[in-house]
């Protein structure tokens, strides 16, 4: 069987806009699921990679890693999905499956390196992977998850990256009703973190540079909002047990480390392209920890989807047509989105 041409939004260089092109998807193998993509969220990582902020971008490039779609084909030896199932695909589409971490379900720590759904060398099939800004994708069923019934599909798409990326560390650091949690940055990840940390029972404080987001933060469940550019508010802010940092650009992290309780932890999930400077004494006084977390494994991605279904959590989104993509990227670069763009891929 020949490879299948499908439509996609692709860019040919860091400074070029995305355009509609045809790409080829591989022929279905025994373990593969073919998915007709309905919706795909737009994460700041898509923008970072499209613009080559971190280096290592390979063009032509098709971003997209918050995929929700319908199963339209199943390989001969698949067991987990059937035609018409509504499914999701996040960042991970392959890993070694035998190292300690893969065996534990932490494919994001795979010792041989995992394959990202886009801009990644495809070790099994050759070439580079193309992501979810397209109409179809073919993925090994071990990296596909079920979207629980009851979740609104376009609003559920961001759970596949934003949701899992904030859920995984909040769970790892045992967030519950006895913890105070600060969330820096109210974008795609940050607004999901408010909802998930609240559902875990925490007292949630949001730190935002955008005063007009304050009311929304409270509506989404935050207990307190601090405008981080206001020195007085920062000075009088109560101390936090955990601070989840979702900021996408260089910023002064020391002023947040100073807001941690003794033994508190600040967790990086945002990935500014430039290194951040940390004053040693800021972590020393109070035995504080500086840490980080990278998405989450496949089993945990299913877990966060189930958690969100149980607690009635989805993203607040702006549903857009594919021809709006370059404006959406432009607005995302300025933090101007409430609070996640999601592409309606059927409209391409
Ligand atoms: P986003 O929607 O653009 O949100 C980022 C927020 O950070 C902005 O809304 C803004 O919030 C704040 N911000 C931006 N520039 C700032 C600056 N110069 N100083 C202070 N605050 C600033 O992005 P996202 O999709 O949530 O992604 C956030 C970051 O996480 C990105 O770097 C992305 O690559 C990374 N990411 C990491 C993982 C992982 O596995 N670790 C997974 C997904 C994404 P306010 O307006 O509220 O200040
Ligand atoms: Zn992402």
Please trace the helix and strand order, writing H or E for each element. Answer: EEEHEEEHEEEHHEHEHEHEHEHEHEHE
Coarse structural class: alpha/beta
Number of domains: 2
Largest sheet geometry: 7 strands, mixed
Which ligands accompany this protein?
A: NADP nicotinamide-adenine-dinucleotide phosphate, zinc ion
Oligomer: single chain
CATH topology of the largest domain: Quinone Oxidoreductase, Chain A, domain 1
Helical segment tally? 11
Mean pLDDT: 97
Number of strands: 17
Radius of gyration over all CA atoms, rounded: 20 Å
| Helical residue percent band | 10-25%
What proportion of the residues form beta strands (DSSP E)?
Answer: 25-35%
Describe this structure in words.
This protein has 348 residues and is of the alpha/beta class. It folds into 2 domains: 4-160 and 296-347, Medium-chain alcohol dehydrogenases, catalytic domain (Quinone Oxidoreductase, Chain A, domain 1); 162-292, Rossmann fold (3-Layer(aba) Sandwich). Helix content is 23%, strand content 26%. The protein has 11 helices and 17 strands. The protein has helices at 44-50, 100-103, 153-156, 162-172, 188-199, 214-219, 231-235, 254-257, 280-284, 298-310, 325-333; strands spanning 4-10, 19-25, 32-42, 67-74, 86-89, 92-94, 115-116, 136-140, 145-146, 180-184, 203-208, 224-227, 240-245, 260-268, 289-292, 317-320, 340-344. The strands form 4 sheets. Strands 3, 4, 5, 8, 9, 16 and 17 form a 7-stranded mixed sheet that branches. Strands 12-11-10-13-14-15 form a 6-stranded parallel sheet. Strands 1-2 form a two-stranded antiparallel ribbon. Helix 9 links the parallel strand 14 (260-268) and strand 15 (289-292). Helix 4 (162-172) crosses helix 5 and helix 4 packs across helix 10 (298-310). The radius of gyration is 20 Å and the shape is globular. It starts with a strand and ends with a strand. The mean pLDDT is 97. Bound molecules: NADP nicotinamide-adenine-dinucleotide phosphate and zinc ion. NADP nicotinamide-adenine-dinucleotide phosphate binds at residues 43-45, 48, 161, 165, 185-190, 208-210, 213, 246-249, 251, 269-271, 293-295, 332, 335, 337.
């Amino acid at each position: 069987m020949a490879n299948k041409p499908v439509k996609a939004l692709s860019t040919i260089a860091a400074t070029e806009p995305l355009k509609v092109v045809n790409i080829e998807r591989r022929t279905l193998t025994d373990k593969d699921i073919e998915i007709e993509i309905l919706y795909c969220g737009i994460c700041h990582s898509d923008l970072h990679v499209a613009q080559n902020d971190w280096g290592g971008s390979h063009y032509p490039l098709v971003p997209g890693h918050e995929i929700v779609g319908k199963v339209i084909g199943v390989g001969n030896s698949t067991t987990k999905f059937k035609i018409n199932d509504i499914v999701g695909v996040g960042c991970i589409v392959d890993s070694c499956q035998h190292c300690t971490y893969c065996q534990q379900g932490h494919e994001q720590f795979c010792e041989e390196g995992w394959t990202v759904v886009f801009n990644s060398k495809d070790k099994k099939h050759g070439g580079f992977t193309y992501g979810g800004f397209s109409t179809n994708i073919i993925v090994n069923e071990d990296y596909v998850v079920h979207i629980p019934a009851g979740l609104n599909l376009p609003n559920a798409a961001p759970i596949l990256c934003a949701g899992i990326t904030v859920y995984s560390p909040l769970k790892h650091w045992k967030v519950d009703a006895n913890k105070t949690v600060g969330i820096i940055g109210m974008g795609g990840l940050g607004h999901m973190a408010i909802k998930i940390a609240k559902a875990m029972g925490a007292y949630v404080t949001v730190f935002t540079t955008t005063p007009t987001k304050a009311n929304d933060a409270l509506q989404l469940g935050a207990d307190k909002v601090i405008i981080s550019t206001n020195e007085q508010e920062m000075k009088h802010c109560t101390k936090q047990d955990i601070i989840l940092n979702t900021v996408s650009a260089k910023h002064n992290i020391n002023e947040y480390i100073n807001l941690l309780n003794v033994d508190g932890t600040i967790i990086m999930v945002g990935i500014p392209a430039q290194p951040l400077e940390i004053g040693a004494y800021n972590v020393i006084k109070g035995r504080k920890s500086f840490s980080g977390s990278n998405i989450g494994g496949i089993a945990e991605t299913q877990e966060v989807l189930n958690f969100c279904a149980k607690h009635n959590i989805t993203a607040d989104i702006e549903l857009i047509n594919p021809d709006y993509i370059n404006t959406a990227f432009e607005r995302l670069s300025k933090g101007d989105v409430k609070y996640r763009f999601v592409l309606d891929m059927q409209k391409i």
